Amino acid sequence: MRGLASVLRDAWRLGRPYFVSEEKWPARLLLVTIIALNLLLVGMDVILSFWSRAFYNALQDKDWDSFIGLLFFYRRTSEGLMPGFCLVAALYIAVAVYRTYLNQWLQINWRRWLTRHFITRWLGERTYYTMSLGGQAGGTTTDNPDQRIAEDLRSFVGDTLSLSLDLLSNVVSLFSFVAILWSLSGPLTLLGVSVPGYMVWVALIYAAVGTWLTHRVGWPLAGLNFRQQRVEADFRFALVRLRENVEGVALHDGEAEEQRGLAERFTALAANWWAIMRRTKALNALVAGYGQVATVFPIIVAAPQYFAGTMTLGGLTQTAGAFGQVQSAMSWFVNSYASLASWRATVARLTSFEAAMTEAHAQHGLTTQRTETGAYRLEDVTLRLPGGKMLMEHADLTLAPGQSVLITGRSGAGKSTIFRALAGIWPFGAGRLLRPSGRVLFLPQRPYIPLGTLRHAVCYPDAPDAHGDAAIRAALERTGLGALADRLDEDDAWGQRLSGGEQQRLAIARALLTRPDWLFLDEATASLDPESEAELYTALREDLPATTLVSIAHRPTVARWHDRHLSVGDGAVRDAA
């Protein structure tokens, strides 16, 4: 498989942190126990190999006592004391059950730790926000981070454990049964040359040929699986977007266009799936044929010794079984190729996700400094768009406490970027942000409505129990949402249930509840009519007299609620005339 060494390094880098984390000892204990159980199963396979030889010899000799003893109790044979099949089977079942149980236990613990680790990195330092904006030109990009965290981490943990433990078992089986097969097969004279343990060499050649053919047929599956995960996620994301914007689609009569877009995405999905199907069909034909031939191949190879009378029926079955174990172990790559291809795609997606988060961390943006008192200031600030376009360079802005400020400017001048810079979240730029102590609240044009109850939506980002019912009801009444006051504990999709104007009213209600020292609004009342906008600004000025109010707006009527007017344009922020 191409680039396997690189994939293994990436997988090690992804998987190792859990086993050296604060949970390392429980994790290592579980892993060691699972490995021990896997090795125990291999040892029991070795025992069953010798049991099979004794059992079939008893059948050949019509030895009833040996038959019953080997089946239910125990029997002394030439190899020593041989336990009965029932005892071995009972232990085998118990070990197999707990191996799977402990494996699943380790999987959920590992996945939980990795999920928390990735979510912490993704949310930390607002990495998720920087990634959503896109990096600098030529930078690393990533798609569908939700899928990387929810699905790829699950696949990575499950497949890594399954493949690695299976490989370990096959390696141990190989060394265990090679010795058995070597002793059973004896020498073979070929062209006058005596070849000792000839069946071991036959198994090796058989597995090598199968591995080479499988690699030739199956290597494109890794890239196809990688693409399939992406197109599946793109299709699902398009469906989610449609669900979240049903009203906009309906108002535009956009059903035909949405259907066309969904059809295009599904066509890409189906086309890639057909490519996977064709490649998998060829791979399955090869693997199935390889496996079927392997069931009779060792018997055919060993049959001459049996018919010559130099090998018993039990010896023949043990030889066939040992050959099968050796051949199967040597053919691990053949049998696991499809799983390896899928695992490789998962590792590549998680690695690219980590690289994108690392690059996002490198976008430092403005340096934020807290001050005990004083003005809210931007000093020597340079702001750029994600693609590198310069918005403003070496600009300064001072907002005095207690002063209400209106910021206006043409579309594209950088008003919303200044809003994000004042919040300290804009990653593409340089300079210094001096942020005074006290609570600061930023209300964008499109408020964020979290999942859950209406109480949660109104109190956000505070906890739902941070404010009493009376205060919440009063805030809703003050912002024109009094009709919702009796639905505080109703769990609904409020982000879709409320209109754009109602969502903006809800955001103002949050401000009335949290009573911030500094309140920044970016077109936060743009979805309301002028009368409703005036009512909300009146509520803000009357109910929050000590709050410094900074608004970005287009409507000239908003100016009467502010003492100072700033204009953004030509890469600078100036006092308007």
What report would you give on this structure?
- With 577 residues, the protein is of the alpha/beta class.
- Helix content is 62%, strand content 13%.
- The protein has 19 helices and 14 strands.
- A hairpin with a 2-residue loop joins strand 13 and strand 14.
- The chain is elongated, with a radius of gyration of 35 Å.
User: How many β-strand stretches?
Assistant: 14
Largest sheet: 6 strands, mixed
* Cα-atom radius of gyration: 35 Å
Q: β content, as a range?
A: 5-15%
- Widest sheet, order of strands: 10-11-12-8-13-14
Explain briefly what this protein structure is.
The chain is an alpha/beta fold and 577 residues long. It contains 19 helices and 14 strands.
Helix and strand arrangement:
Blueprint: H1 4-19, H2 24-61, H3 64-72, E1 74-77, E2 80-83, H4 85-123, H5 127-133, H6 145-185, E3 188-190, E4 193-195, H7 198-218, H8 221-244, H9 246-251, H10 255-307, H11 313-330, H12 332-335, H13 337-362, E5 367-371, E6 376-384, E7 390-399, E8 405-409, H14 415-423, E9 429-436, E10 440-443, H15 454-459, H16 469-478, H17 494-497, H18 500-514, E11 518-522, H19 530-543, E12 548-552, E13 564-569, E14 572-575
Parallel strand pairs: 5-9, 8-12, 8-13, 10-11, 11-12
Antiparallel strand pairs: 1-2, 3-4, 6-7, 6-9, 13-14
List keywords for this structure.
elongated, alpha/beta, 4-stranded mixed beta sheet, 6-stranded mixed beta sheet, 577 residues, single chain, 13% strand
